[in-house]
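Run folding on both entries below.
>entry_1
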Amino acid sequence: MNKEDILNILKHELPYLKNKFNVKNIGLFGSYIRSEQTKQSDIDLLVEFSAPIGFFKFIDLENYLSDKFGLKIDLVPIDALKPLIKPSILKETIYA
């Protein structure tokens, strides 16, 4: 799986994610976006919500995406980014 595959799946899933989980935007960053992934790499996804979803629904979203991709997902809410790393993550993120 490469970044194009991941982004295509995310684009296909976006209407469902918006409806079920209040996802406003979702994007790929990290090793897959830089084509540096290994067999042990997880998929790093940056997510922005249109409304709060709560902890359990957040875990449901992470599990849904993990099942969809067959890989571990590191789901990061955009508002949880640390100020020190936020600019570099936002710069490399490609949104679905």
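>entry_2
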Amino acid sequence: MLDFNERRTVFVTCKDRSVPYLEQEIRDLGFFPDKIHRTGVELTASLEDCMDLNLHLRTASQVLFEIRSIYLRNASDIYRRIKALPWEEYLDVDGYFSVNSVVENESVSTPLIVNVKVKDAIVDRFREKFGRRPDSGSEYKGLVVQIYWKDTHAQIYLNTTGETLAKHGYRKIPGKAPMMEDLAAATIYATEWNTRVPFINPMCGSGTLAIEAALMASNRYPGLYRDHYAFMDILGYSSEAYEAKMRKLRNKIIENPGVKIVASDISLQAITFARENAAIAQVEDLIDFQVCDFAETEIPEKPRGVIMFNPEYGERLGEVEELAETYKRIGDFLKQKCAGYRGYIFTGNLELAKKVGLRVSRRIEFWNGTIDCRLLKYELYEGKK
């Protein structure tokens, strides 16, 4: 079995353009990145460390623990090279495993070919050694084997996460066009919000931004809302070590952070959904929910903090024309009611954003799925500037 304290290469993945925020999270946990990639951060860490990374990270997708880096010329090499690895050190013969691969090699037409060959190699090794084999399938459960193969270089990882970390476990009711939790956390980090000053989220929808802000303010981490990770199915895993980490996680909670977080929406149903999600996250009492038009949102005069909008982008012409007036009204609201705050609009439609009518002081790039988005910053000066 694996020594959970042995340090090897670990690759933590995230959405493209979220890397700066993931890197800072990793540094804040006391780790030192070795390499920064477009969609993740590489560091040296143990499986014990991977447990902590999975429990704490808000902007990550997967935490991958490298077991081998191998030379692969073409598809005919896969079975032999994979079968030679000591899979019995990682996986119980009566366990379950799945395989996922990302391949850039001209000999492979689809990653499914690689997945099947890897599964066959692992199964045959067990059958030859023990006379029986573990179960396998496509579900992200049990031991998760991750392959990254580019040209002639393949990295073999144990995926210590399983189901993506992008979902933080509290959002049972997503609402209309929801923002994923990992993206919401990354955009809040991008605002450089100080958790001691107000965070205002008009047009809150299902409440993801406000809930993520409340989680940050109260020191609640995603691991509190999840009860299974793929590292639990790696041989050598200690449930006692995991429970100790969970106790530490619970002890970090700040029950009354004393910060004002406001979430408003004109839809009573949206606020109802947002409240239910916040209740699951145990932060309902930390958020001031308001049912109103965004322009009527009550915001504290002091101290001034961050106000953040995530309006619809508009996919059809009629919607865009209707939203143009909404974006103009957002600009009026920021100018007239939010002096001294730092204003932000997250949008996938820069033409609509021009209707805001305020000077943008910073444009921060993000992807929301396949939509090229910007987090636009507005300095809302008090008085004339």
